[in-house]
Amino acid sequence: MGYQVKYIARWLDVLMITESKRSRLRDLLSMLKVGEEAKYVSGEHISRALDISREAVWKYISMLRGYGYRIDAKPRVGYMLVQRPDKLYPWEIMLELGKCDMVKEIIYYEQVESTQDVALRLAEQDRDSILVVAERQSRGRGRTSRLWISPDGGIWFSLIIKPRVNVRDVTLLSLATALAVCNTINSRFNLAARIKWPNDVIINYKKVAGILIDMSIEHDAINYAVVGIGVNANVSIDSIERMISNTDKHYYGSTSLMHELGKAVDRVRLLASLLRELEHIYSRLAYRDEILAAIRSVMMLGPVRVIEGEGNDAFIDGVAIGVDDDGSLLVKSYGMIKKVTSGYVHVRYVR
Fold first, then answer.
1. pLDDT tens across 131-190, in order?
2. What are the distances in angstroms from CA 26 to CA 45, 108, 232?
3. Do 344 and 266 fall within a single domain?
4. Same domain as 108, residue 185
5. Taking the chain, what is the end-to-end CA distance rounded to the nearest angstrom?
6. Which domain range does residue 151 map to?
7. CA distances from 266 to 86, 94, 111, 271 (A)
8. Shared domain check, 168 and 26
9. Residue 6 half-sphere exposure, CB side, CA atoms within 13 Å?
10. 40 and 114 share a domain?
11. Are the CB atoms for 208 and 257 separated by under 8 Å?
């Protein structure tokens, strides 16, 4: 199944990349390796492989250079890819992702107010299987309309899906999404990422990723779901701390994968891995017991303070002891077990 790709440049002009150009960019990049596999590839070989003229080869090389790729050229020798830009370009995602029925179209922004808002407008037009990704957001949204700081270096995206799940199970969709994020981080980097109920992913009690799901439900049927995910991949934590610590009274600290690992991560590979894991997890949503068991295995439990409402007056101190079958958090307080549901509820883990 082919992709349709839109590239939205810094000046916000829309450049439509045709299916043939998309395929050739992807195939050209697959021929030009970096690192230890780097070698010169002759223009004649590229011309034959892509079934294009030598002049067209040069135009594609020039196009890639314009997008920030460092490509060395030697007369009568060929071309060698020296360095890829750290960008979430659609053709890079496609090359790494391979076949994925969940993503049929990719829309890329250098900067956008909110990928979630773009995706929601498309979903209202009955579009689906669309990935909207941005290098940064100026007005990213979190739960309860809180600002989501989205600088360069992160992975900020929204995905339009039509989940095959019973309406009574929609509360598990956010937790299942968090499970996919945890699984991806832990499998790729061996970090102890855990779910902070209801929609955050944390490492060492600090937020590394967040999830926002907007859904249209009508007559006991799900029209669509827009899954928004933000991952602090190669983000400067100092910049986030400066922007958010004085504006969000429920802020509990942030971290990034780069901070935890001491080095930058490959964002394209991480995003592709996450998309594959999301597709796998979503395909298993009908198996409630299996999904709940997996969610419970990575859920952060222990002493908590549950703050109800946007104020700080109403709160419950207790111990998070598990997740109920409907996805609510079970908190034991003064000998009684309370079910904490979504809404204006904030859970603070007490260390």
1. 999 999 987 665 555 666 788 999 999 999 998 888 877 888 999 999 999 999 999 999
2. 16, 16, 27
3. no
4. yes
5. 48
6. 90-298
7. 8, 15, 20, 9
8. no
9. 13
10. no
11. yes
CA dihedral 92, 81, 137, 345 (to 10 degrees): 60
Band of pLDDT at residue 245, cut at 50, 70 and 90: low
Cα–Cα dist 343/308, whole Å: 9
CA–CA dist 202, 154 (Å, integer):
15
Same domain membership, residue 230 and residue 344 = no
Question: Is residue 213 domain-resident?
Answer: yes
* Structure confidence at residue 305 as a pLDDT band (50, 70, 90): confident
Is residue 246 in some structural domain? yes
Do 188 and 316 belong to one domain? no
Question: Is this model's pTM higher than 0.85 or not?
Answer: yes
What tens digit of pLDDT does each residue of 6-24 get?
A: 444 333 333 456 667 777 8
Please name the amino acid found at residue 312.
N
Q: Does any domain span residue 12?
A: no
Q: Starting from the edge strand earliest in sequence, which strands make up the sheet with 345-349, in order?
A: 336-340, 329-333, 315-323, 302-308, 345-349
- Nearest 5°: the CA angle 198, 141, 184 is 55
Q: How many domains are contained in the chain?
A: 3
> Are residues 248 and 107 both part of a single domain?
yes
> CATH no. for residue 39?
1.10.10.10
Same domain, 137 and 236: yes
Place of tokens 């969940």: 102
Q: How confident is the model at residue 78 (pLDDT cuts 50, 70, 90)?
A: very high
Task: Establish if 4 belongs to a structural domain.
Answer: no
The pLDDT of 31-57, averaged and rounded, is 88
CATH number of 204's domain: 3.30.930.10
- Percent above pLDDT 90 for the chain: 62
